[in-house]
UniProtKB/TrEMBL annotation:
Listed name of the protein: UPF0434 protein ABCS64_06385
Alphabetical list of Gene3D superfamilies matching this protein: 2.20.25.10
Pfam families listed in its UniProt record: Trm112p
Residue ranges of the TM segments: none
Annotated PANTHER family: PROTEIN PREY, MITOCHONDRIAL, ZGC:162634
Family: Belongs to the UPF0434 family.
Classification via SUPFAM superfamilies: Trm112p-like
InterPro entries reported in the protein's UniProt record: Trm112-like
Amino acid sequence: MDARLLDVLVCPVCKADLIYRKTAAELVCKPCRLAFPIRDDIPVMLEDEARALEESELE
């Protein structure tokens, strides 16, 4: 994942900063409790494609 791209990407729902989880290949928005997948090094920034995070994943 390109670091420059991570600097400009924000959550498409609430515009909060995203956390990159390399091992899970996803970008996480803590305020929305959503994880956006990264497929073939391309972030899929669609709310319908995001998965809801469990409480334990927010820590």
